[in-house]
Amino acid sequence: MKTENSERHQDSKGKPQTTNYVTLDGRGQSTEFQQEVFAALEKLQPGEGLHIIKEFEPLPLYEVMKNKGYEKVVERKGEEEYHVWFYPASAEPAMKENIELDPDKIDKIMDIKLKVFRKELTPKEARELVNKTFESVTAEEFAYGEQKMLQYGITDDAMVEDMDDIIEIFQDVLERTGLNLPAGHPIRTYAEEADELEKVVDTIENKLNDKFIKNEWLELYEKLNQINIHFSRKQNQLFPALEHKGFDRPSKIMWTFDDNVRDAIKDAYGDLRNDRDKAFLEKQSNVIYLVRDILQKERDVLYPTSLQLLSDEEFAKIRQSDDEIGYCLIDTPPAFNADKQKEAETRGDDSASSESELIKDLTAVLEKHGISSGQGATDVMDVAMGKMTLEQINLVYKHLPIDLSYVDENDTVKFYSDTQHRVFPRSAGVIGRKVQNCHPRESVDTVQAIIDAFRKGEQDKAEFWLQMDGKFIYIIYNAVRDEQGNYRGVLEMMQDATHIRSLTGSRKLLTWDDEQKGKNESP
Description:
Elements: E1 2-5, H1 10-13, E2 20-25, H2 31-43, E3 48-54, H3 59-67, E4 70-78, E5 81-88, H4 103-117, H5 123-133, H6 139-148, H7 156-169, H8 186-207, H9 214-224, H10 227-244, H11 249-273, H12 277-282, H13 284-309, H14 312-325, H15 338-347, H16 350-368, E6 380-383, E7 386-389, H17 390-399, E8 403-408, E9 413-416, H18 441-455, E10 461-468, E11 471-481, E12 487-496, H19 498-502
Helix pairs in contact: 4-5, 4-6, 5-7, 6-13, 7-11, 8-9, 8-13, 9-11, 10-11, 10-14, 11-13
């Protein structure tokens, strides 16, 4: 390993003059080299980059380094010699475009955070420095600092490991204000759910001093387990909206904390149901801590930052799909922003009327010149085998006894089938989202490995199956290719195969399952 200055590469290769590179020669190395890269990345100082030398172009590193906030320059110096310079992205995090920030204040916040991550300050020393330096720090300033960490090589794993310390350091100065939001606003809904979950946790804590009665604990854990609905709506609805604003740290970092909470609850719940009372009770302190911790992280950072980044119109759009996933320990909230829309219609909003008339006029002009404005629901279309209307196509997808989703060649989610029996919850917020952001960090490597193998033409199918809540879930990923064999994306098929696996013998006579439930006819 060595360090070089990049200035001599600047004119021909376009790398920043201020970047110093740590050089890693990985020729002849395989799996262990990736670990060496990650270890070097952890040690990079602000403004430093990595210079990688390999006998082939290190394509798998590109997406990884991009997600960590690095851009690249590639140079081929021979048949088996590639040089890649990864340098910190010069652009500010995209979320800066959506909030007003004091650059000097952000620099001071970043300086303290980085010194903690670099172990130049202890959390105690950093907290004292924060209290001397700032009267207050807003949630969006704090969140922006987390996003900006990517440019300094602070990995997601490092963020997860030290996040509690970082929040603790800013506890005394982090601004906290009441939400004061109307009923139906998605952030108010999350906050109301959090309040109800806190009540359950308080009851659990108090119950530890009482006589153990299994049925009472089962009732409490049935309620606590609903936190998964809270997480699912947050991950599928709120996170995608924040990603569009350049704030993707929640989906990468908070998702891990969500999973830690979910796993702790699931583990303890299993002990309870299987009469492992002692093990169950021993796990309660950890469950209580994790639930309270994630709810506090949401209140301190996620809710106020979301309110700064997203508009009422965007929250109204989120609210429209929230019902598909459901709610945790609260009744379905009222629609959000419906009153404003009705008022605009009652007033006869001129701009809306004008826009509608303009669209009609443009449509008429296009159709006059033989240019269709788009297929209607009842227009017959030629499909690969047959003729169907758009309405019929949607009905077929809606009634398939499997879940389908499609990710295009750019790793963007474009479609999922709107079935009634979904194995996992989905909502419209997933459309247009990078598929890597639709999964917990811990499973992103597997997702990326599938995509990479499909894109390179090395594989065409990947199968998985799992046992979940007494069900057997079968999942298959298929590479999608056009007639010329070009990679066009991934089709995911998911099915609850529990019933199929239970079938034996034969059924050759018409038998309605509601009349002969549990029976198979075999003449």
